[in-house]
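Our consortium's second objective concerns turning raw sequence data into structural hypotheses that experimental partners can test. To show how far this objective has progressed, the report includes one record in full. It was chosen at random from the queue rather than selected for favorable results. The single chain below, 359 residues long, was entered without modification.
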Amino acid sequence: MVAKRLLPVVASIGFIVAAETGGAAQNAPDIHVVVNMVQLNVAVTDKKGNYITGLKPKDFAIREDGILETPATFAEGNEPARNLVAPAEKDTAKELMVQAAERSPQTLNDMMAGANVFVLFDTSDYMYRGFVFAQDAISDFIRSLSTADKIAFYSYSRDLSRAAPLTADRSQVLRAVRSTVAGDEAALYNCLLLTLKDADQHTGRKVVVVFSNGPDNSSVVPPEDVAEFAQSAGVPVYMVSTQEARLEPVSTAVFERMTAATGGKAYFSKNWRAERQAFASIRDDLEHLYSVSYYPKANPNNGWRTITIKLVGDGLKNYRVRTRSGYRPQPSRFSGGNKATLSDSSSGLTQGFPTRQAP
C-alpha cells in the first residue's frame, strides 16, 4: 500500500510536522512525528541601557528547565534568520519540517523576519484629559515603524474595537487612530487577552504595544492568566502609561510584572513628550532584538517550563539579557482528512494550512 502523508502544519507554537503511514492491516497504528520550535526575542543591553550588537549564536547559553538547548536559528534585528542545524544533525522529523517549509509558499525567513505590531489604545473614561496627545504619540509611533511588516490598531474601554486589523497600509491605521472616541470603563485585561489571541494567529514576530492611562476596573480575566498566555504564545507586551496610572500601586506592579515576564518593558510617562520618547524607545527595542530558536530536548515536564538565557564568553557576563521567562505547552489541534493530533505550544509561528484551536 502506498503510504499517505498528512498536510504539514505549523501551529501557533512552532513547526509541527505529522506523517501518517499505513500498513496492510486496517488496524495498523498511525505514526505521528511532532517537532516543536521555541522562538525567543532577546534584548541585550549594558548597565546604561545601550544595546549590544554583533553577538553570535555561540554567545548565548539557553536552558529550558535547566536543560542546555542548542540554537536552531539565529538573527539580529531585522536580518533574515539563519539556519544553524547542520544537515548531518537533522533527524527524520527535522527533515520532514524542512521539506514542508520548502513546499509551502512561506519560507523559514518569511515566518521569522520583520515584526507584526498590535497597538492597543485605552479609550476609557480615564483618557478624557490626554486623549488628543495620546493619539499624536501613537500616530508618530506608527509612522516610525518603517521595518514592521504590518500594524494593527485596536482600542478598548469596556469592549475591544478592532479599528484596523493587521495591515501594511499605514494610512488605514492612522485613520483608525484619528477616528477613536472616548468610552466608558476600562477592561484592559479582557481586551489584551483578545488582542494576544489575534496576534497568535499570524506568522512572524509579534509584539503588542499597549497605551493605558489607568487601572482596570471592568475585566473578568485575571492579569496572571493574560501574562501566561503571552509568554506561552511568545508575544512580548510593551506598556506605555501615564504618571496618573503610576499613582495606583496595584496596576503599576501588574504592568511591570507582565511586561518583564514576556520580554517587553513598561513605561510611565509624566507628559506627552515623555509618551513620544517611550514609543521611540519601543521602536529602538524592536530594531535591536535578537531572534533565537531551538528544538527542545527531551523534557518530561508538561507543565510550566522555565527558560533562562545567559551570555558566555569574555566580557559578556556583565550585560543584561531580557526575554520571556518560560511557557506552558498548550494543546493545538489540526486536521488532515479525518485525522487529528495534539502537540505542544511554544512559539507563536503559524502557517496558512487548515487549523483550528483546541477547545
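The partners drew two points from this record. The chain is about 25% helix and 30% strand. Residues 272-288 form the longest helix (17 residues). Both points have been shared with the crystallography group to help prioritize constructs.
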